[in-house]
Amino acid sequence: MTSIGIPVTGRRTRRRSRQWGVKGVLAVLVGLTMFPYLFMIITSAKDNLQIAEHYWAPALPIHWENYATAWQQIQPYMISSVIVAAAAIVGIVLLSLIAGFVIARYSFPGRRFFFVMIAALLMVPNICALIPLFVMMRDLKLLNTYAVLILPHIAGGCVLGTILMKTFIEGIPQELFDAARVDGAGGIRIFWSIMAPLSLPVIGTVALITVNGVWNDFFWPLLTITKDELRTVSVGLLFFQGQSGTDYGPMFAGYLLASLPLLLIFTFLSKYFLAGIQGGLPGSH
């Protein structure tokens, strides 16, 4: 018995009941979240007759050939998405890293004003710049090129990237930079030898955000690209649906294959994403 007359075993029983209740609710939420993905996996292994007869349940035989058909269709679109994502990552990381380093570690007139203006750009909806951006790309004759896909991602990604980089770099001890300057290191040497290696977590965060944005971007590639070989995977899947007609098995297999890169990236690199958001190194929290 405790001092207030409640048995210890009773308190433990209620605590276990609450824990099971919380676990049950979380399990239901996870099930609801994963159900569309599970349905996509099940449907991707069927033909049209199996889908008509067993819409929700798995069916035999498993049609593995759906994945081969889907891969042949979406492979060029996947390659285009990888090219755009890689170029955008390089541009965003380089520009935002330099901007974040300068704003965080150098004093100059208007530093606070420039940072506030950069942060204010986050409040501007992307749709507001759609028409001016399209007209500018058309006048520059960049439509139907990789540049029309890469440059807007770099311009838009540098805003959030600069904010994340600046916040992260401010958390690096100033003593490291002071010691490097005492040893005769200049700004470029400090940038590449000290700041850049220590900023790998936030670089990974910016890279993951960029990959996610490129992979899920639909309207801009649909608006600016008419050449089939330049379409990214999000737009390519739309045309894949038209090419396949009502053959839903390969169509869902294409959706599954297109989602695997993002799923694998976030599964294995999620700790770096969280570390960059929190402003620390993996394992330090």
What does this structure look like?
This protein has about 280 residues and is mainly α. Helix content is about 75%, strand content about 0%. The chain has helices at about 10-45, 50-55, 65-105, 110-120, 130-140, 145-170, 175-180, 185-200, 200-215, 220-225, 235-245, 250-280. α3 (about 65-105) packs across α6 (about 145-170), α3 packs antiparallel against α11 (about 235-245) and α11 (about 235-245) runs antiparallel to α12. The protein is globular, with a radius of gyration of 25 Å.
Structure classification: mainly alpha
Strand content: under 5%
- On the 0-100 scale, what is the average pLDDT? 83
* Tertiary shape: globular
Tell me about the largest β-sheet: none
Number of helices: 12
Query: What order do the SSEs take from the amino end to the carboxyl end, as H and E?
Result: HHHHHHHHHHHH
Helix content: over 70%
Q: For the CA atoms, what is the radius of gyration?
A: 25 Å
Distance between the termini: 39 Å
Count of extended strands: 0
Give the uncertain stretches in residue-range form: 280-285
